[in-house]
C-alpha cells in the first residue's frame, strides 16, 4: 500500500459535497477537542455538529449501524452539555477533578454495557444496513473482521471517555488516548489514510488535554492550600 492508495484513492469516487462534508466533520471534531483541552463548554456544540455531519454521511452511505452509534455520541454530547452548563460559574469554563471510586466502578459497568450494546448493534447490522429488511439477510457476527472487533472495543472506550468528560473527570483523557491510538492502525487497515492522520492529531491533543487538566487541578489545590 503506497501513499496514493492510502490518502487519495479512497476519495476518487467521492463527490465534492461528500469531501466537503467529511472535511467539515473532521474540522469540527478537532475544534471540539481543542475546546475540551481549554475546559470550554463549546466542546459540546462543536462536537455535536461533527457527529451530526457523520450521522448524515453514514446514513447516506447506508451504514445505518455506524450511523446509530454516532446518534448515541450526539446524545452523550447533549448530556455533557447540560452537566457542564449546570457546573460552570461563567457558563463557559468548568473545574476538573479526578473520578471518585464510585464513579470508576460505574465506568466499569458502563464499559461492559457499551460492549454488549455495540456488539448487539453489529449483530443486527446486516438487517439495519438492509433498510430494516430481512430479505437476503443473515443475522450474526460472521461479517466482522479484526478491525470491526477493534471498533466495538474503541466505541466502548470512547463512550466511557465521553461519560467521564461530561462529569469533568481527568480520567476521560486516558480513555481518549487509548482509543485514538487503537484507531490509527485500524483506519490504515481500512485504507482511510486521512482519518488515521486525524486520530494521530487527536492522540497528541488528548495527551495535551490530560497534562493541561492535571496542571489546572494542581494549581487549584495550591491556591486553596
From TrEMBL:
The chain crosses the membrane at residues 15-35, 42-62, 68-84, 105-124, 146-166, 173-190, 196-213. It is a multi-pass membrane protein. It is found in: Cell membrane. It comes from the Bacteria. The keyword Chaperone does not apply. Belongs to the nicotinamide ribonucleoside (NR) uptake permease (TC 4.B.1) family. This is Nicotinamide riboside transporter PnuC. It comes from Chryseobacterium endalhagicum.
Amino acid at each position: 500500500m503506497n501513499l496514493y492508495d492510502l490518502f487519495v484513492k479512497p476519495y476518487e469516487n467521492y463527490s465534492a459535497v461528500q469531501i466537503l462534508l467529511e472535511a467539515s466533520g473532521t474540522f469540527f471534531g478537532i475544534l471540539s477537542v481543542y475546546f475540551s483541552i481549554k475546559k470550554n463548554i463549546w466542546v459540546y456544540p462543536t462536537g455535536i455538529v461533527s457527529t451530526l455531519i457523520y450521522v448524515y454521511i453514514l446514513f447516506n452511505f447506508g451504514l445505518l449501524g455506524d450511523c446509530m452509534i454516532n446518534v448515541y455520541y450526539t446524545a452523550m454530547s447533549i448530556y455533557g452539555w447540560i452537566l457542564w452548563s449546570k457546573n460552570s460559574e461563567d457558563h463557559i469554563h468548568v473545574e476538573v477533578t479526578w473520578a471518585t471510586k464510585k464513579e470508576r466502578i460505574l465506568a466499569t459497568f458502563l464499559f461492559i454495557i457499551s460492549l454488549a450494546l455495540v456488539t448487539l448493534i453489529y449483530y443486527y447490522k446486516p438487517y439495519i444496513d438492509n433498510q430494516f429488511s430481512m430479505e437476503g439477510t443473515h443475522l450474526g457476527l460472521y461479517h466482522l473482521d479484526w478491525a470491526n472487533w477493534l471498533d466495538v472495543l474503541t466505541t466502548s472506550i470512547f463512550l466511557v471517555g465521553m461519560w467521564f468528560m461530561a462529569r469533568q473527570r481527568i480520567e476521560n483523557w486516558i480513555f481518549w488516548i487509548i482509543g485514538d491510538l487503537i484507531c490509527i492502525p485500524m483506519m490504515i487497515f481500512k485504507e482511510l489514510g486521512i482519518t488515521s492522520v486525524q486520530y494521530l492529531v487527536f492522540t497528541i491533543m488528548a495527551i495535551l488535554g490530560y497534562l493541561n487538566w492535571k496542571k489546572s487541578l494542581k494549581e487549584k489545590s495550591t491556591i486553596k492550600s
